[in-house]
Write a structure and sequence with these properties.
By secondary structure, the protein is α/β, with parallel strands linked by helices. The chain has one domain. The protein has 12 helices and 9 strands. It has a 7-stranded mixed β-sheet, sandwiched between helices. Strands 6-7 form a two-stranded antiparallel ribbon. α2 packs across α4 and α3 packs across α4. The protein is globular.
């Protein structure tokens, strides 16, 4: 850590200290403060507010302007709560995390593990997405992928946070064979495939009725590792009551030989989770950035 004592890191260290101090507060207090922060973020979000509004209008055409605005405000409150609880992700003990988290329908996961089957957890980008991986990691080494962050101190802290209970971190550009080997060896794969893949390998499949760029990684990893895919969503409970990790039944007859059909099914499952907690999906991401050839930008 001595290499991170340079003055250019001092302001960042101050922010980390604040997050640590906030993480010591009762969770209900942190959640309350975070939602207040989110209300401020909504007022100054600018470009990100435009992206969130565009996404919501595309995905919920049945909503009028008042409903869209209410959902945007709720989303930024959830974002603010997620920001102030980063310290919990970074520093909370295993015991505290277990107190904060309840599980719904966990038997879908436990049954496959007990049967000795390789498992991939389909974990979409909800704002509290890291919690499930942290809570499950101590029981069985949980594998997850990450993208190296330019700031080396932030990169170090995030990798330390996600691996401190036995989690295994694999860089996105690593050899796929390493991932397959670990999954076949019994490490569940906590996989987040629902962001725009940019110029990398992708297919287009419907998401809320919109042709959306999707990485075919989920079906590819499932096929090569012979893994069962289980949807897994993390929900922030109201009034600072903690988190609920939700498991859905394993996907049947998945993967197929059709990458587009597999992507459609994946999107369909993610939509199911979003409709349960629409304010908590990561709407500030340009989910529809990549367009089929000939289509104009939606942003």
């Amino acid at each position: 850590m001595t290499k991170y004592t340079h003055p250019r890191y001092w302001l960042l260290w101050f922010g980390i200290l604040l997050l640590w101090l906030i993480s010591l507060l009762p969770y209900r207090v942190t959640a309350f403060l975070g939602r207040g922060l989110g209300s401020i973020m909504y007022l100054v979000a600018g470009r990100r507010a435009h992206i969130a509004k565009t996404n919501l209008e595309l995905c919920f055409p049945e909503f009028d302007s008042d409903q869209i605005e209410a959902l945007m405000k709720a989303h930024f409150k959830a974002l603010g709560q997620a920001v102030l609880t980063i310290g919990i992700n970074l520093f909370a003990s295993q015991r505290r995390l277990q107190r904060l988290v309840t599980m719904r329908d966990r038997h879908y996961f436990d049954q496959q593990i007990a049967a000795g089957k390789p498992v991939i957890l389909l974990a979409p980008h909800f704002v509290a997405m890291e919690i499930a991986g942290l809570v499950l990691a101590p029981e069985r080494h949980m594998l997850s992928m990450y993208q190296t962050i330019r700031n080396p101190l932030i990169d170090h802290l995030i990798r330390r946070s996600r691996s401190r209970f036995g989690g295994i971190m694999i860089e996105r550009k690593a050899d796929m064979r390493q991932v397959v080997k670990l999954v076949r060896g019994g490490s569940p794969f906590y996989y987040l495939p629902d962001q725009d893949p940019g110029s990398s390998d992708k297919v287009f499949a419907p998401f809320f009725g919109i042709q959306t760029a999707v990485t075919p990684g989920l079906s590819r990893f499932a096929r090569l590792s012979k893994a069962v895919v289980i949807p897994c969503f993390t929900k922030m409970l109201p009034h600072g009551a903690g988190y609920e990790v939700i498991f859905l039944p394993p996907l049947e007859d998945f993967p197929t030989k059709d990458a587009v059909e597999d992507a459609r099914r994946m999107n369909e499952v993610i939509e199911q989770g979003i409709r349960e907690m629409p304010a908590q999906y990561f709407w500030v991401h340009r989910r529809f950035k990549s367009r089929p050839e000939g289509e104009e930008s939606l942003y």
